[in-house]
Every structure is written in C-alpha cells, then in structure tokens.
Amino acid sequence: MAATGQGRASARVKVGGRGETNVATGLPVLDHLLTTLAFYASFDLALEVEPGSAEMEITTAARSLGEALNDPLRADGARGHGSAVVPADEALAHVALEASGRPLLVSNVDLSQARIAGLAGDLAARFLEELAQTSGLTLHVRLVEGKDTQHVLEAIFKALGVALAQACRPRRRRDE
Asked: What pTM did the predictor assign?
C-alpha cells in the first residue's frame, strides 16, 4: 500500500482489460460505482483503501485511481480525451474529459442534500474533484435527466468509464 497523503491505498489499472475488479474502499456504494466504472471502461481494476472516515476513504480512493490513470492517460499515442452519454434507467449523464494537466471539475450535478447509503454530502463531487486534481483532468459532468440518486450516480460513473477508456485508447494514425 502506498500513502496518498489522505490515507493508505493501493491501486492498479490495466487499460484494455476485461472489466475485472477487486475493489475494497470500505464504502459498499463506492465499491459498486468503481466496479461499474471499470466494467464500462473495460479496465481491470484493483483498488484497496485502508479503513478510515468515509470522507477520507472517498478522497483516498479517488486519489489512488487518479494516480494509477496518470500514465495510461498520457501514454505515447493516447488520445487524451473522451466523451460519453450513458443512461441508467431514468437518469442520463454526459461526461467529457481531457488529460489537459489543468485539473478542473465543471458539473451541474448537486447531490449535497442526498443521503447515499447513509452518507451525507455529495459523494460524487468529492470523488470527481479529487480524481480531476490527481490525474490532471479537465472534467465536465452534465446530468441531462434524472431524479433517483442511485441512478444518477450510476449514469455518471458509467459515462466516466466510457470517456476514460476513450482517453486511454491509442489515436489512429493518419495513414490507417
């Protein structure tokens, strides 16, 4: 396990995998969302976070994932950008991102009043902000439609997975 400044964690990402996961953040809802992200990205993801407060676990998981994605996002020939619109039941989310080196989260999603699996506050905003900062992403998240908090979160993490997969995918050469 490596220290991230917020807590101890280890994360490994294999881009172009089969969506296999071994995720243990201490928060079942976050484990589910990260498993969903990995499935939609076709990333093999191993992520383990040392137990602590819920806020520390969210921050540490995001930071660890961001650090693990730094190399694939900036690999020679990687596209470095991606965009996806993905539904989850009545919810529809659009995520666009660029490995710009200028971390920024722009979002119209406000789940600050939601209680997600007993957690107060905006789980998604905390996670996405830390992910953007750590991986140097310009990250735009738009909720097009959605009322059910779980469906909104699933749509966001599905779209994030697809957009990350696109960003890590090699660019097509002009001669192809």
From this structure: 0.91
Pairwise CA distance, residues 73 & 58, whole Å: 21
| Residue pair 165/41 in contact by the 8 Å Cβ criterion | yes
Residue keyed to tokens 């596209």: 79
Given 2.40.50.840, 3.40.50.1110, 3.30.230.40, 3.30.70.1450, which CATH number is that of 2-168?
A: 3.30.230.40
The answer to whether the Cα torsion of 144, 146, 152, 157 is positive or negative is negative
Cα angle for residues 73, 97, 104 (degrees, 5° grid): 100
Q: How many CB atoms lie within 10 A of CB 126?
A: 17
pLDDT per position as a tens digit, 133-170: 999 999 999 999 999 999 999 999 999 999 999 999 98
Range list of β-strands (E), the chain: 2-3, 8-14, 21-24, 44-49, 81-88, 91-98, 104-107, 115-116, 119-120, 138-145
Q: Which amino acid is at 116?
A: I
